[in-house]
TrEMBL record:
Family annotation (Gene3D superfamilies): 3.30.70.270
Name by which UniProt lists this protein: GGDEF domain-containing protein
Pfam family, one: GGDEF
Domain of life according to the entry: Bacteria
Upper classification of the organism: Bacteria, Bacillati, Bacillota, Bacilli, Bacillales
PANTHER family named among the record's database cross-references: DIGUANYLATE CYCLASE DGCM-RELATED, REGULATORY COMPONENTS OF SENSORY TRANSDUCTION SYSTEM
NCBIfam families: GGDEF
Coiled coil location: none
Positions of the GGDEF domain: 208-334
PROSITE patterns named among the record's database cross-references: GGDEF (PS50887)
Organism from which the protein derives: Alicyclobacillus mali (ex Roth et al. 2021)
């Protein structure tokens, strides 16, 4: 076995720790395979796990085609095989001559690309196959022994698997840092990080308007002082749950400090009142009348062109609502 080839490969993998996302990692790995393992082309199969959906795996997909496979679209037969197997229903962990591939459509497609050898190495996460590293050679390799070639492929798939798990762990930690531990709502950082996605979604959404709403619990200090902080914590959770039940999947609910919440929502009309007053009523009903809140809101594009400007306008209206309710005991518009 060529110890020098393996040493060069592992030296190359030191840079993989810089990868922030899977696509960047796949690019690093493709470069190593091309320059150190005489691979002429390949792609990666992977089932992403949605951090914000509790780690639920998404359907498998092909990522970062390179070399031979970057020149032509991936054949439909690959997509068909993916429906039943992340490793394309092929023997894994070894090179195969194209003529030995049992699937007719796959064999024909690879032959049309002048592929001589083809191999699939599985990618693991927590002892489970999560994807595959798919590689090809269009010419015979004479400067690497079979043992060295096999060891390079095994090392690469193992390093990619490990790095993918590390990236996922970092994303989980980032996600957790953007959640309010008490209520499960987003915290200020979580809202600010997701605000650009809201702006992206506004493009071409002429019939929908972005509402920035704020919610403040009435007499919250009195609740804590009279009944204790555990009761106050339960009130915060009740409010967060009611807001989250009212919010649509693409809307945001955050706790931005103390007893104040923020809501980023959509409205069919350029008016914040219908959505926010509906949430105000929902909180009262959810708590059987024991918890009441004051609300304010603004419309992005009308009251401001930034999250900060919209929040300032909404906060001013919240205190108008709070003052009115102190005088009259109910919302001025309900």
């Amino acid at each position: 076995m060529d110890a020098g080839a393996l040493s060069s490969f592992f030296e190359h993998t030191r840079t993989w720790g810089r990868a922030q996302r899977g696509m960047e990692l796949f690019q690093f790995a493709a470069d190593a395979l091309t320059h150190l393992a005489s691979v002429d082309g390949g792609f990666f199969i992977y089932r992403k796990r949605g951090v914000e959906t509790g780690g639920e795996p998404q359907p498998p997909a092909v990522y970062h085609t390179f070399g031979t496979f970057a020149e032509e679209p991936i054949a439909p037969c690959v997509e068909q095989l993916l429906r039943s197997s992340l490793t394309l229903d092929l023997p894994t962990g070894r090179w195969l001559l194209v003529e030995d591939i049992p699937q007719d459509d796959l064999r024909t497609w690879l032959a049309s690309l002048s592929v001589l050898e083809f191999g699939v190495w599985p990618l693991y996460s927590r002892e489970e196959v999560r994807g595959a590293m798919v590689v090809a050679r269009t010419k015979a390799v004479v400067h690497l022994t079979w043992e060295t070639s096999h060891a390079l492929m095994e090392a690469c798939s193992a390093q990619v698997s490990l790095a993918l798990d590390m990236i996922m762990a970092i994303r989980i930690a980032e996600h957790a840092s953007q959640r309010d531990l008490l209520t499960g709502a987003w915290n200020r950082l979580g809202i600010e990080r997701r605000w650009p996605r809201v702006l992206d979604a506004t493009r071409g959404a002429d019939e929908r308007h972005v509402i920035v709403g704020v919610v403040d619990i009435d007499h919250f200090k009195r609740i804590n002082d009279t009944y204790g902080h555990p009761v106050g914590d339960r009130v915060l959770r009740v409010v967060a749950q009611a807001l989250q039940e009212q919010a649509q999947p693409d809307e945001l609910v955050g706790r931005i400090g103390g007893d104040e919440f923020i809501v980023i929502a959509w409205s069919d009309v350029p008016d914040w009142r219908p959505r926010m007053l509906a949430m105000q009523r929902a909180i009262r009903e959810h708590s059987s009348g024991t918890c009441q809140v004051s609300v304010g809101g603004s419309v992005f594009g009308l009251d401001g062109d930034s999250l900060e400007a919209c929040y300032t306008a909404a906060d001013e209206r919240l205190y108008e609502n709070k003052r009115w309710r102190k005088q009259h005991g109910e919302s001025p518009v309900s």
